[in-house]
Design goal:
308 residues, alpha+beta, Phosphorylase Kinase, domain 1, Aminoglycoside 3'-phosphotransferase, Chain: A, domain 2, 5-stranded antiparallel sheet, two-stranded antiparallel ribbon, 10 helices, 9 strands, 46% helix
Length: 308
């Protein structure tokens, strides 16, 4: 939906119908995957009907998630206006703002407090026993790019080497990634409900209190570390503080947590680089950035920089 004004008009109609009254003015907010419009007490996510179907996943799970974890779903479905059709989800607006990637402007004490509350909510999610239809949604095949198995990570390295016809990936990066794969667990679990995208841009907080976890489009069966990785990795200067919080709250030795998070980041970055190399129209700058990120991870080992 390229016309933002049209999108706002559609969102206004959807929100007003869900509330049973005029929803008032809506403001467009940035989103990588949908058009999102926010009002005084409502949020509408819309996407062209022909685009990806991840919103279906979120809508299917929302009514059954543990109470108080996410924003209440007011309405969802398909909306047609003229020749355009969109899929939508309309939520009650939860108070708060996102701490955002890297937690800019958040001091360490606040970061620890937010992390403690986020861990508590995620533990409730991990302990949730989904109903049959939610289990079906969580168990659907999803190319999430995360860690699956040692063999899959080895295969990713081989694919990178085969695709890298211009030698953009230094040999030491491939060797380092291979060594990381050797240290990885043989297989990832897939038996716990996880959000799988719970970076700080998908949380809301107010007065140093977490109010909601949003955007369940990537939710699936996995293992708790799939969520601990996002929480820790995107804490900016508070990475070590948040790692300490997670380790203490889950009784996980920090060294194990570092190793499990490192292999997850390796899997995501390798998948990103592979996708870039597979597209012939990928700008060289994008490939270079992906290589730089992977090189920093496997050569400089930031997950171990502050380990005792």
């Amino acid at each position: 939906m390229s016309d933002r004004r049209h999108g706002r008009d559609v969102a206004h109609a959807i929100a007003s119908a869900a509330l049973g009254r005029d929803c008032g003015p809506l403001t467009a907010v940035d989103s990588l995957s949908h058009h999102v419009f926010v009002g005084a007490d409502v949020v509408v996510k819309i996407i062209d009907a022909a685009r990806h179907s991840r919103l279906h996943r979120e809508i299917a799970l929302a009514p059954d998630l543990p109470a108080g974890i996410t924003a209440p779903l007011l309405d969802s479905g398909r909306h047609e206006r003229g020749i355009r059709a969109v899929r939508y989800a309309c939520y009650a607006r939860v108070p708060g703002e996102a701490p955002d990637m890297g937690m800019p402007g958040v001091d360490e004490a606040a970061a620890r407090r937010l992390a403690e509350q986020a861990v508590e909510r995620l533990c409730r999610l991990h302990d949730w026993t989904p109903a049959a239809h939610a289990r079906t949604t969580l168990g659907e095949t999803l190319d999430h790019g995360g860690f699956v198995s040692r063999a899959a990570l080895h295969a990713e390295v081989e694919e990178l080497a085969a695709l890298d016809r211009d030698a953009a990936v230094p040999r030491r990066v491939l060797d380092g990634l291979t060594a990381m794969a050797e240290r990885a667990p043989s297989q990832a679990r897939a038996d716990v409900p996880v959000h799988a995208d719970c970076h700080w841009g998908n949380w809301l907080a107010r007065d140093r209190r977490v109010t909601a976890l949003l955007d369940f489009e990537w939710a699936r069966f996995g293992e708790p570390t799939d969520d601990w990785f996002f929480l820790i990795r995107f804490s900016g200067p508070h990475r070590e503080a948040v790692l300490d919080v997670v380790a203490a709250a889950t009784a996980t030795p920090p060294a194990i947590l570092r190793r499990e998070c490192e292999v997850r980041e390796a899997s995501y970055l390798a998948a990103d680089l592979r996708a870039a190399l597979q597209r012939p129209d990928t700008p060289a700058r994008t490939v270079a950035e992906n290589v730089r990120d992977l090189e920093e991870l496997v050569v400089e080992r930031p997950w171990w920089r502050h380990a005792p």
